[in-house]
Please model this.
Amino acid sequence: MRERYRFIGGASPLPDITGRSARKLEEACKLPVHVGMLHWHPFLEDAISQMVLDGVSRALVICLVPHFSECSVGRYHRRTTLAADERGLAFDFIDSWHTLPPYVDGLADSIVASRKELRDEPGAQTHVIFCAHSLPKAALVAGDPYELQLWETADRVAARLGLPQEEWTVAYQSASGPGQDWLGPSVDELILELSERGTRQVVLCPFGFVADQVEILYDLDVVVKQKAGDLGVAVTRTPLLNDGSALIDSLALLVEQWRG
Model:
C-alpha cells in the first residue's frame, strides 16, 4: 500500500480535496462546515468536539459516498452516533444521495467529455463501465441497498445520455484480501469479456467515488489501464467530481432540503 501511495505522489489528495469542498459548501450555504474522517485527521470525534466547542447544537452530517451500505456509510453513521451522543450533539444523517440531479448530471457530463477523447473510428464499439468499490458479500446484511442504488444511479445517467442497455454495465473495483467472495463482476473481468466480444474502447466512470484517491489514481489509472492495453482495449476515465460545481451543488441541495 505504501508503494501505491509513493506511485501517486506520496500521499492521498483526498484530504485536501475534501477540505476545499467544505470551504466551497460553507460559502454556498452560509453555514459552518466541518470535516470529519474515519481513518485520518481530522477524525470524526475531533471534528464533533470542535463543533460543540464552537456552540453547534445540531448538525447535518453528509457522507461523501453517494450510495449506502451498512459496511461503508453505515460505519460513518455509527461512529458519528457514538461521538455525538458522548458530546451532546444532535444531528441528522444523510444515508444516500445517489439520485440527486446535480450528481447525475455531473456524471453524464463527465462521460460526454471522456468519450470525446477516444478515437472516432468507423465501427468502433465503445462501452461505458460504471464502477464502484467492491464489498465482501459476507459483510452485506439482508436488504442492503448498495447494489440496487448503484444500478439506480447508472440507469439515470444512461437515460440522461440516451445510452442503450447493451452499451453500459455496472462493475466493481479494488477488491482486497484473499478468501472472500466479493461483489462482481470486477472491472478487469468485464474488460476481458468485452474484448472477447470485439469492444476496443471503454469509458470508465467511477461513480461510486466523488474525489481522487488511490483507488482511482492507481487501481484504475495504472493497473486497469495496463491490463486493458495488453488486451488491445483503449480506456479513458471520467474526471471525478472533486470540489467542482456538480458536487457542491449536490451538497448544497441536501443542506437546502434539510433547512426546509
